Predict the structure.
Amino acid sequence: MSTKTKTEIASMIKRIELISGESLFKCYQCGKCTAGCVMADEMDISPYKVIRMLQLGLVEKALKSESMWICAACFACRERCPKEVDLAKIMEALRVIQIREGKPLIEPDQVDDKVIEEMPQQGIVSGFRKYN
Amino acid sequence: MKYSYFPGCTLHTQTKNFNDSIKSTSAILDIELEELKDWQCCGAVYPLTTDSAMGLVSPYRSLQKAHECGNNLVTVCSACYNVLKRTNLTVANDGEIRTKLSNYMDVDEYAGESKVLHLLEAMRENNGFGIIKEKTINPLKGLKVAPYYGCLLLRPSKELKFDDPENPTIFEEFIKSIGAVAVDFPNRIECCGAYVSITSQRKVKGASESILKSASNREADIIITSCPLCYHNLAKEQERLEKDDYTFKPIPILYFTQLLALALGLEVESCGFESNKIDARPILKSKGLIYRGDA
């Protein structure tokens, strides 16, 4: 059960729409985003379901999902969406809400030294931009 | 033709062989690349939020500087290209952000007047790769090359306008111009998993594996890319496949300018093959395309 009031949920939805610049309600659930998503298999909640949950006001549940951290922002979903919903921006909004509330996915000192040594600088920079 | 050149963080550090081959091949193709002075990292990802302009400061600074030099800006890393080109479009269309950025940095306002080009586009400007054909003295005959585009060169296509997002051809044209055979493989435009691998290489396994197997099934000799992160993820996945799947034969992954260097007749030693995770020299030697080297 949600601990939030209807007004609080409505304002969280508005915040996601404001940060992403996208309208959640344009999505009509065709599932094309998910069919073409190379990371969907790794997600606990499929991309189209994340949007559906937000449409239904299940914001807290969506924020608890790992899917936003698995999205690689490759824009295949945006490219193919018949309603031109930029799901990558919605995933980004979910990430930054968590990060701004002090809940980043990773802290720099948690990343293995070997990963930092092997990964190209571009990967390190983008990883920290998305996850911290 | 003269351009300002933005190498980006990785080309100056981990992938010097990419940067070196860019410089040596561009010089032969009459593309003068003048590296931007005091450039900064572009940020590696274009900010997708509407309520903060901080992520645009660094790419805006590079764009503004290139414009002051009077040049269009060339970059090669797929991430730099994505970030710089999208930022250029944003500052062209959004006066409010433009003013905010200029005021914050205390620089003249820049409204996206200069162009951002990928090196492939700059090469194609000259008679549709005609100059490459003309200067190729060691055509890579019989070499089957899989062009791996990945995501950041192509998408979002409405902003980047780099190529057809579902059926791109620029890499194929490039491959033909150096005398090699372009391998048509289904996963050439799919994402490798990108930065997700910073948390765990396992999470990008599915994405990277399908790209490699797709190229392998079409019997590619070599995969080319222009993105250091794609290079890394694919190479790491090959390491795993080599251990876990005895049927999989590793495919050398190269930056496209390394192959170009070979085709343009540069010494094998200056193509930077020794820095690649999987040595391309044995396959190049077996095809009769190099006669020396360590292979």
Notes: Chain B touches chain A through 47 residues (CB under 8 Å). Strands of chain B lie at 2-6, 32-35, 73-75, 116-118, 144-147, 181-182, 222-225, 253-255. Chain B has a mean pLDDT of 96. The domain at 128-286 of chain B is CATH 3.40.50.11810 (Rossmann fold).
